[in-house]
Amino acid sequence: MKTYRFIIIFLFAGFAMQGLAQDNISPERKQAIDSLALEKVRDLSKYISLIGDKDTPFSEANRVIDRAVELFMEGSEVGVSSLYREEINYYQVREYLERLMRLNYSKVDIEWYKIEYVSDLERQPDGTYVGVITIFQKFSGYDKEGGLVYQDVTKKDITVYVKRKETQIAGKLIGFWDVLLGDIRVKETTKQ
User: Distance between CA atoms of 140 and 56, rounded to whole angstroms?
Assistant: First the structure.
């Protein structure tokens, strides 16, 4: 009886491991996923610059906000900090972007640089892979005369989620890895 239990347990373990192997990411696929994640972060950087730019028409800024929100997991938040206060405020992505569009400066420049992975993708129990990309954001706000009113540099960590999904193409079920952004956490804010 013990032998049969052992064989059954062994078979179930083998099937479970085989199922996990299908969800594992090959080095080549991981490199492609890393590139896609970094590309999505760069896209977000462009969107944020457009939304913050006072020369962007209102209708275009709203269209870009919609595109930016699509990059994120539902419920994700973005941290906002200032040199003038210690606390960090967190806003839902859409609210953050709408607030960015309404900032009380005549001109806003937002530049992201040093965009890089700080933690490799790690598999979670539900099969999702999670990693962190770090960016540095230089924010500059100007008055009507073009004078610099406020400037800071903020280090931020962006959580990245990689999930296995399926779609149907020409009647065939096709599996693929999808990359979505999560919370953007402020690590530190300093003077430029």
Answer: 17
Contact 78, 90 (CB under 8 A): yes
With 0-12 / 13-18 / 19 or more C-beta atoms within 10 angstroms meaning exposed / middle / buried, residue 106 is middle
Beta strand 148-169 pairing with 77-82: unpaired
- How do residues 118-171 score in pLDDT, each as one tens digit? 788 889 999 899 999 999 999 999 999 999 999 999 999 999 999 888 888 998
Tell me how far apart the alpha carbons of residues 46 and 79 are, in angstroms, rounded to a whole number: 18
Q: CA angle, 161 as apex, 90 and 121 as ends, to 5°?
A: 115
Does the model's pTM come out above 0.90? no
What CATH number is given for 26-190 in this structure?
A: 3.10.450
Distance between CA atoms of residues 28 and 177, nearest Å? 13
What span, in angstroms and rounded, lies between the C-alpha atoms of 192 and 178?
36
